Each structure stands twice: as C-alpha cells, then as structure tokens.
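Feature request disguised as a bug: please show the residue count (503) next to CLUMA_CG015071, isoform A in the output. Example input:
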Amino acid sequence: MIERFESFKKIYILFILTICYIVGELGHYLIGVTSRATARDIDYGDHACQLNNTKFEKNSLPIQCDDISEPESCSGLNISGVQYCEWDYNGLGLEYQLLAGPVFILVFTIVGVILGIAADKYNRSKMLFVCTLVFGVAIVLQGSVQNYWQLIFLRMIMAAGESGCNPLATGIMSDIFPENKRALVMAIFNWGVYGGYGIAFPVGRYLTKLNLWNLSWRVCYYATGVLALIIAVLMGLTLKEPERKTTNTATTHKHSEKTSLWKVLMEPGVIMLTIAASIRHCGGMTFAYNADLYYNSYFPNVDLGWWLFAVTIGIGSIGVVVGGIVSDKIVKKMGVRSRVLVLALSQLIASPGAFGSVYFDPFWAMITLATSYFFAEMWFGIVFAVIVEIVPLEFRSSVVGIFMFVINNVGGNLPILVDPLAKMIGYRESIAIFYAGFYLISSVLFFITMYFLEGKPKAVVPATTQTEDNINRVQNGVDNRSYIPDTVTMQQLSGRTTDKNYY
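Example output, currently without the count:
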C-alpha cells in the first residue's frame, strides 16, 4: 500500500506541475490568437485591408482585400453594392511582435535565471506556489486593460511568475523520478508548452466570438487567470519539497577545489546543445506567434481553429511521449548521445512537413503540419533530459535557468525579424525561413552536438578502483551521480589524501 501511495503521489505531482505549466503557457500564447480583437479594442499595431464579416468566398472576389494598401481604395471594394473589405487593425506589426516576444522574454529569462539559482538553495515548492499566484493574478488583470502599455506591463509581471515553472519543476521532478523515466517525465511536463499553445486556439478564437457578457477577448484572460489561481491554491496545500537526491562524496561534500558553474557552462557539449536548442526554439516560436494570424491572412474563409487545436494537442502529445520513450529506451545502449541523435533525426524529418504547412492549401497544410508536429515536438522534453544528465546535480536548477535564459532570448526574440523581412519578401516567405528553415538548421546543429558528448556509458566502478579513463567517461555519461570535477586527482580518488573534505 505504501508503494502504491508513493506511485500515486509521484503521478499527482507530475500532473499538478504539468497543469500549472499548461495554464501558464495558455496565458502566454493567448495574445497570438486574440491579437486582432485586442488591437481593435485598445489600438496597437498595423492597419490593413481585410475581408469583413460578409459571406463572400475569397476565391470569388474580383479584387483581393490584401492586394490593397490604401484605406480609401479598400472601402470602395464591393460586389453588387455590398462592401466586402474593411480597413482596420490586423493584429500584426512591430507593436504586436514586441508584445508577443521580447517584452515577455526579457523578463521571463532574467527572472528565470535568478529563480533557477535560488532553487538550488531554497524551498522550490513554496517558490513555485508564489510564482503561480503571481502569473495567475497578472493574467486576470490583462483582461481589464484599457491601453497598450498596461498590457505590456502585465505581460512582464506574468513572465516573471511563469519563469519559475521550468527550473523549479525540473528540479523537483528530477528528485522524485528515477533516471530510466527521466526523458518521458520531462517530455510530459514540457508538453505543457504545446498544450497551452494548442488550447489557446479554441479558447482565443471561440470564446472571443461568443462575446460572453459582452467581454469579447477579455473573458479568455479572466477564465485562464482564475484557473491559474485555483492551481496555485492546490499547489500551496498539497505540494511538499522532496528530499534532494545525493550524488557521490565528490559532489555532495565541500572540498577544497570545487567545480564552478562557469566551468560547467563552458563545456563544449553544453554550448553546442544551447546553440542548437536556441535555433530550434526560434522555429517553434515563429510558428506559435504567427500561426493563427498567418492562416487568417491567407485563408480568411477557412476556420482552422479546431484543426490547429487537434494537431498541436493530439499529434503533438503523441510525438512528445514517443520521443521520451524512444530516448529512454536507446539511451541504455548508446548513452546520452542517443538522446541528441533523436533530436537531430526528429527535426530533420519534421522540416519538409513544416515547409508544406506554409505553402500548401488548407487541407494539405494541416496534413503536413500534423506530420511535422509529430516529429518536431519530440525535442523539448529530451533536450532537458540531456541537460540534467550532463551537468552535476549541485548546479542542475542553475544550469536549467541559464539554459532557458539563452534559448528564450535567442529563440524568443529572433521572430521579431519576421515583420521587417515580411515587408521585404512577403509574410509567407518570412515565416518559411524562420519556422521551417530553422527546424532544418537545428537538425544539423544537433548532429554536430552529438560528437561533443559521450557514447555508451560504462559501468560505474568503486572510487578506489577507478582509472583516469573511467573518470572521464563517467563525467560525460548518462548517470550524473558520479560527476567528478577535473581538479580531483587520482591520489584523492584512491583515498590516499589526508584532506578530510574529500571523504
């Protein structure tokens, strides 16, 4: 009964942490779906000639709305006296890109590093409760904004709260789940990013259209924020700080020559993994910030909201789980390098489908998007499993926080270039480069990263019999419980030192 209770407890913790992440990401991505309605309400972004609410099909129009660049010409387009275009905010432009990306990412990444470092020293469960409370309140208040700058400020507060989710939860889960479940657990948790993003489509589109209590887009934020506050209360009442897992004596006890955080960050494998993940993250964020606006711009008569929901939630979920399972299975044979191989192959296979989702008509765009999503979404959980396996446990949350800082600042801010490039070569072509093109580039970088990581792990032998070769292999192997700093000498390892700090 005790074993069953412990198993249930672990599942509950994973469930509550994942739901917390989903709700936070839902609040994060709602702006990409509600932006047109939000912009028309509080005035920000670009104006454009757009198909209005008349029932004309786009392919039956004598002149397309998006071919017109002047408001007077736009209002003059009609069929039998019925105006079919309108000049209004389209939800795009530099102000939108700033709101969706840099404003959020700047605070998210800086506070994330601070919380990641704090998580290695303080109670992570209490910190996570406070973070959830903060972003829940911020999301609720976003529903009441009256101007653009209020929305900017509240997204910054929301980002500060949500920034703690990943580093804090990653540390908690690494302490309660065994290594052979690590990639799957990380994949399920980090699926929260895509879960929140996928749910944003029906919530942002259809709740806005329902116009409940005449609140339009605002009700989406009220509902999401209240749900976040409920999760915060549950976490505060039920989530306890787990016992931190120990490593070996070389890493759990203080010694005269400690491995520094800077040295860990400067490992070639960590650097290459960070670069590859940043490029991949840019591709994902480009699609996340622009998908609804892109398909509405090119296919205004086709309601793809439920299609996008089904692909991101359904297909994406399967891909996340499959990626975690495959990674956990083959890591026993090939070592941590196998996880990166899964990353590289999955992004390579996903790239053609990503291009198809941009250039094909709606039906085939959704088919190719589903194919691409299955493979593309394998990446997020696996990359965090790699991170926690190649760094010493004493720096785990700190490294995760810094890793998130880098990939979010690069991957989250590069999509701001979509708008100026779109004005030069076209919106579709710009999306293709930053979305599908960056998937392909990340695949190449993941392949390169493999050669900086160790292959099949060797069995860990007692410290008294380890050779220098074994030490090097263990240091880069899958089981980071045996991480040993370079400064530890063979004499110290064999017990022939008089320094009591090494025992």
